[in-house]
Fold this sequence. Notes:
The structure is a single chain. By secondary structure, the protein is an alpha+beta fold. It has one domain (10-127). Helix content is 24%, strand content 19%. The mean pLDDT is 90.
Amino acid sequence: MSSKVPKYDEAYVWVWLPGETAPVVAGRLYAHDGLVSFNYGRSFRELGSAIPLYLPELPLKAGELPLLPGLTMPGCIRDAAPDAWGRRVILNRKFGVKGDEIARLDISELTFLLESGSDRIGALDFQFSP
């Protein structure tokens, strides 16, 4: 991997709950053994207004949540990541990676989530800290 592109192993997931005007930390993603796992934070689970990020995949319960068969990360989280064009923009603008160099890189999903910016569409955001 290019030394220009950092490799992250964890990210905090923030969520805008329905009817709220500020986001709260829902939990943490962490990379291990080629997988990205999620667990809800205790403070989020104890909120009266807490809801699952996506009930069929990430029910609101304690501990590391198992991935659905065939997935390397929760699909609802992957869906919040930038598309192919957004990934190229991140690599070019943030790290100066261009053209053929992009195809040779092994970049983690957490890198794209963390570098995607908070000013985007959707209820989820990804940050380095809670």
